Amino acid sequence: MDDNEQKNALVAELGIADFSAEDQEKLLEQFGEVALKAATVAVMQDLPASKQEEFAKLAEAGDTGQLKAFLDSEVPGHERIAEDAVTAEILNFRVALAEEDMAQEDSAGTATV
């Protein structure tokens, strides 16, 4: 799956396909930040405290190969942990979007004429 296909799949999963392209981009950027933080926190929770500083240094260095090798050895199943965290954030996003839609519908229905 190329980047555009991944983007379109995420747009569909988030339920924002009917939004303008500009709004989609903003929401995807915001969601990406939230998802990355959620995945990182989830993995860090399973990382022994004695290894967290080493993880931080590797993450800061930006060598994804070294970081993956480190996580492979220190947090078995880290990819699934991260995926589960992102999936939970997708659900949270969809719930928040639905609640916002309901609030807008309620305020539109109670407007005085």
Any chance you could write out the topology, listing elements then pairs?
Elements: H1 3-14, H2 21-46, H3 49-61, H4 64-74, H5 78-109
What does this structure look like?
- The protein has helices at residues 3-14, 21-46, 49-61, 64-74, 78-109.
- By secondary structure, it is mostly helical.
- It contains five helices and no strands.
- α3 (49-61) runs antiparallel to α4.
Count of extended strands: 0
Q: What structural class should be given to the helix and strand makeup? A: mainly alpha
Runs with pLDDT <50, length 5+? Answer: none
The fraction of residues assigned to DSSP E strands is under 5%
Please state the average pLDDT score: 92
How many helices does DSSP assign?
A: 5
Number of domains: 1
Shape: elongated
Helicity, as a percent range: over 70%
| Separation, N- and C-terminal Cα atoms | 51 Å
Query: Biggest β-sheet: count, sense, barrel?
Result: none
Q: What's the Cα radius of gyration?
A: 18 Å
Question: Which features does this protein show?
Answer:
single chain; 113 residues; mainly alpha; 0% strand; elongated
